[in-house]
Amino acid sequence: MSFLDAFIMPKQVTIMARSSSITNSFVNGIIPCIAPTEEEVAAALLLLGMGEDDVVCAYCGDPVTEWDHLNPLVKNKRPTGFVSEIHNLVPSCGKCNQSKGNKPWRKWIVSSAKKSPLSRGVPDLDERIRRLEEYESAFEPIRLDFESIVEPELWEAHWRNLEHLHDVMQQCQAHSNLVRQAITDSANKAVDNPKHPTSTLEGSHTSNLGPSSETQTRQHQAYEQTPAKESDVYAQLPPDLKGIDTVGNKDFASRCLEHLESHDLNLRKDLDTLCSKEGCKSAFNHDQALLKRVDSAVDQAATREDGHGYARYYATPKNLLGQCFLISKEWYGLGKNERDNRTPFLKWVLSRT
Predict the structure, then answer these.
(1) β-sheet bridge partners, residue 78
(2) d(CA 136, CA 148)
(3) 91, 51 contact by CB (below 8 A)
(4) Final residue of a domain: which of 141, 175, 198?
(5) 288, 295 in Cβ contact below 8 A?
(6) Do 261 and 327 reside in the same domain of the chain?
(7) Which distant-in-sequence residues (6+ apart) come within 8 Å of 102 by Cβ?
(8) In total, how many domains does the chain have?
(9) Residues 6+ apart with CB under 8 A from 307
(10) 135, 91 in Cβ contact below 8 A?
(11) Which of 22, 58, 90, 276 has its CA 20 to 30 A from that of 286?
């Protein structure tokens, strides 16, 4: 075993790593919490076979730490319509709550998911399931159609605010990458400095460490969590695409498409590729069709979703050659834990013009 085998590099912090937390805040932030009466809590506990002095996790019987939503509040990054109120809540422990997440409780409780009651060998599981089913039958939880309640403009503005915030975060991430790269380059030079502690080890101790100074430097650089250096494609861009590596995803895609419309003599044919999931995957490693043809006269909300209910496209349509399209939101930048489909797409755009 080498010394490096004993080393664990702390995970790199990125701005975009917080994007899911921002999304959850926008979704959960509009869901109301309705406090129960003492009588309602008593009735709930009675049906679950508990009293005020023996409240335990309804799923596994461990000491209670919180109350969990039987029906999830969020699905596909949008509210389900359920709210935080006693008829949609049961006592839970932290292990069960974290393991269950947004899964339907009936499937989860008998699944092999990590820390699920079945995987932990919880006894009397059938009895616990029976009580939970009785609880659901006795109390119908509140479920509202949020979108029909809120004024359409107010509702759409809320989600546009989320998109805008994600775009700003993308721009900030691109700027952060440049700052971090400059600092990392300086840190690597410091490792090569003869005064660096790793260079002052002498004698038999040094030989036991194994790697040479040059090898240590290479290994140190291998631990870098910074994004890979951008392709030379960004170094020689036409004027209308200058600085495109520092903008958010929405502006990036829009500017590339505008460049295509101005310079691509075969755009009408290439639009077929951009509207094809298989074509986009093959051409530039994009998992969704980059464009989706829509009728500008129809409601855009439904057309933004894929077959699984995810809003994969920006709400604002883009007009190209007199046709109306929605632009994919599924972009990934350069980084250790991200796949880069922006650079391949930009290369493809430049190859067409």
Answers:
(1) 75
(2) 26
(3) no
(4) 141
(5) no
(6) yes
(7) 72, 74, 75
(8) 3
(9) none
(10) no
(11) 22
Do 260 and 351 sit in the same domain of this protein?
yes
Range of the domain at 306: 229-353
- 310: tokens are 């995810």
pLDDT for position 50: 94
Indicate yes or no: pTM above 0.85.
no
Of 70, 66, 56, the closest CA to residue 109 belongs to: 70
Q: What is the pLDDT of residue 321?
A: 87
Token code pair at residue 149? 């309640």
Helix (H) or strand (E) holding 161: helix 152-192
| Same domain (yes/no): 264, 349 | yes
User: CB–CB of 143/82 below 8 Å?
Assistant: yes
113's tokens: 């998911």
Instruction: Report the alpha-carbon distance of residue 215 to residue 3 in Å, rounded.
Output: 13
Same domain, 352 and 244: yes
Same domain, 346 and 241: yes
Which of residues 226, 259, 275 is at a domain's end? 226
pLDDT for the residue numbered 221: 40
Residues in the chain with pLDDT < 70?
1, 193-231, 296-302, 304-310, 334-338
The CA distance from 159 to 329, in Å, is: 13
Q: Where are the beta strands (DSSP E) in 252-343?
A: 291-293, 318-320, 323-327
> What is the bridge-based pairing of β-strands 74-75 and 318-320?
unpaired
Asked if residue 314 and residue 211 are part of one domain, the reply reads: no
Same domain, yes or no, for 90 and 19?
A: no
The residue assigned the tokens 């616990």 is 128
What type of residue is 144? Answer: L
Same domain? For 73 and 3 the reply is no
Q: How many residues are given for the chain?
A: 353
